[in-house]
Amino acid sequence: MATVTFDGASRYYAGNDKPAVDQLDLEVEDGEFLVLVGPSGCGKSTTLRMLAGLEGVDEGAIRIGEREVTNLPPKDRDIAMVFQNYALYPHMTVADNIGFHLKIKKMPKAERAERIQEAAKLLDLEPYLERKPAKLSGGQRQRVAMGRAIVRRPQVFCMDEPLSNLDAKLRVQTRTQIASLQRRLGVTTIYVTHDQVEAMTMGDRVAVLKDGVLQQCDTPIGLFGKPKNLFVAGFIGSPAMNLIPAKVNGEGALIGGQTIPLTPAQRSALTGTNVVVGVRPEGWTLKSDGEGIPAMVEVVEELGSDQFLYCSTSAELASVDTEPADEAEAPHTVTVRAPGMSAFQRGEKVALVPQPGAVHLFDAESGDRLPD
Amino acid sequence: MTTTSVDHPPPPAPPAEPASPRRGPGVGAGAGALNLLNGGFMLVWALITTLPLLWAIISSFKTNTEFLSDPWGLPETLRFDNFARAWSTANIGQYFVNSVIVVAISVPLTMLLGAMAAYVLARYDFPGNRVVYFGFVGGMIFPVFLALVPLFFVVRNLQNLPLLGEFLGLNSHLSLALVYVAFSMPFTVFFLTAFFRTQPTSIAEAAIMDGCSHFGLFFRVMLPMAKPGLISIGLFNVLGHWNQYILPVVLMNEPEKKVLAQGLAALAISQGYRGDWTALFAGLVIALLPVLIVYILFQKQVQAGLTAGVLK
């Protein structure tokens, strides 16, 4: 068990001036489950591979516990990795796959068998120990890959999108299994995913990356409740937060005829005259008597437990003059969550009022969150 | 992520196309004709290859009189003494053993060196990688005949080497095997490089994470994974080395060192005077048999090896 520290770690790929991972500073606590999340090409896998030693570190350092591992070969780092496509050895049985590391370490046969048995029991793989990977289902292969990591009792687990090859139902099941297994074993885990639901449900903390730069690292609740900038606000949450550019006047920010008041602290933190108002789909109150932003329901998505209404506003929503090029992107539409099985119809007229506590304000210039 | 995510109502679905009676490709009368053509072609091909073989096998059981009077008929009784004659009198037995010795040295050596070279060329990036690779590929177009005379002198001079010299030189099985290895390397490396390139990188990475050294990675993981490819190319080399004629003719001239192909040729030439045709056919069958058996045993793996790049 150990902490993991990234200390200004950077990675440049050949022929590319922009780093794939840029000056990453990250501390992972002992026994913590940290999820790295971000869109494709954001450097999350590279970060993981740098820790595992499969990718070099061009600047900065990586430490596991007190030990600097920046230039150590992978086998000396005491890290186990679970790959996206599992990377099982096709010519070995499940038992041999799980025990391969121990065999290389020249562990006595009896002890090895015991460790394999123990891991197999933990993952319900006992009946399959003598099979070859080709004869296993996707979920079973995934568990073998987990077993191969567990049996080593490493200091750190690295998991690179281990669930993305499973079907939706199995993925949800395995998600909770992995999370509970990790809590039981107490091994520090770095988990890479592009799926923000996975990130939110599994991680003790979630680190959001974009273009190789760490945007925010916080608990799922912190990330959801107080996104540090526009990118995190738009990335975390599904459907995404409504982000509406607005002009600030003496009273506050104007959206669709409604005024959102700004605190003095927010005003002084503002660099320009424009803000972006963020309201999550569940942050709206639906009124029918015309006191909010008038809108028309365009699409109704019924999920049973919830209903998502995609509404177009008749009035100009943003109070900022958008460039002609941005016209197409200028938001006229708002996503709103309503209780499941509500009677909303397509074409219905509604009025939207943002709930006072549900408004997030961001500086339009820098994209940073304004102080609450 | 856009600022708000709203899907516009989908456009009305285009009117459904009227159900057409048109058949897709591969269905119906056209496909039947194609199958017939395919099947017919395969049948003709199969006959062309198997009939001479069968004829040779049948002839090897006949007496010489039967063979000359009725070349297409079946033998009255099975004459196994043809095989005995070929084996001992025509010395096929000795040649057979010689061939086995040479192939037993040359094929494993080719496979080991070829696989190691191909693996490094396929999976490690180093300056000069392409040059070495194309050097091997270029070797494929180099005809054996062009090298015969210099090769003769090179091999003859090998016996002057210290220590190893007494095992090498002309009329040495080891020399012949080494020459076979040299001539088989280009295609072996070419074939196996392509094979190793298809192997997933993540498995190699997993092995490195599991603590494998480069040698461990190769011998414990990558080589076993390449088994289908190794069997295909190994069999190809067994066939090539077993049937090799021109190299032993140049390099092996002592009668007791000759290999099977030379022995058969000698047997065929001597027929002109003695007329023991059935012994010749028996010798031919003896030469054929190991190749045939090996091929039948490994047929599945050969297919798997040749199509390995296609699957996945």
TrEMBL record, chain A:
<dbReference type="InterPro" id="IPR027417">
    <property type="entry name" value="P-loop_NTPase"/>
</dbReference>
<dbReference type="InterPro" id="IPR040582">
    <property type="entry name" value="OB_MalK-like"/>
</dbReference>
<keyword id="KW-0547">Nucleotide-binding</keyword>
<protein>
    <submittedName>
        <fullName>Sn-glycerol-3-phosphate ABC transporter ATP-binding protein UgpC</fullName>
    </submittedName>
</protein>
<dbReference type="Pfam" id="PF00005">
    <property type="entry name" value="ABC_tran"/>
</dbReference>
<dbReference type="InterPro" id="IPR008995">
    <property type="entry name" value="Mo/tungstate-bd_C_term_dom"/>
</dbReference>
<dbReference type="InterPro" id="IPR003593">
    <property type="entry name" value="AAA+_ATPase"/>
</dbReference>
<dbReference type="InterPro" id="IPR012340">
    <property type="entry name" value="NA-bd_OB-fold"/>
</dbReference>
<dbReference type="InterPro" id="IPR017871">
    <property type="entry name" value="ABC_transporter-like_CS"/>
</dbReference>
<feature type="domain" description="ABC transporter">
    <location>
        <begin position="4"/>
        <end position="236"/>
    </location>
</feature>
<dbReference type="Pfam" id="PF17912">
    <property type="entry name" value="OB_MalK"/>
</dbReference>
<dbReference type="InterPro" id="IPR047641">
    <property type="entry name" value="ABC_transpr_MalK/UgpC-like"/>
</dbReference>
<dbReference type="GO" id="GO:0005524">
    <property type="term" value="F:ATP binding"/>
</dbReference>
<dbReference type="InterPro" id="IPR003439">
    <property type="entry name" value="ABC_transporter-like_ATP-bd"/>
</dbReference>
<keyword id="KW-0813">Transport</keyword>
<keyword id="KW-0067">ATP-binding</keyword>
<dbReference type="InterPro" id="IPR015855">
    <property type="entry name" value="ABC_transpr_MalK-like"/>
</dbReference>
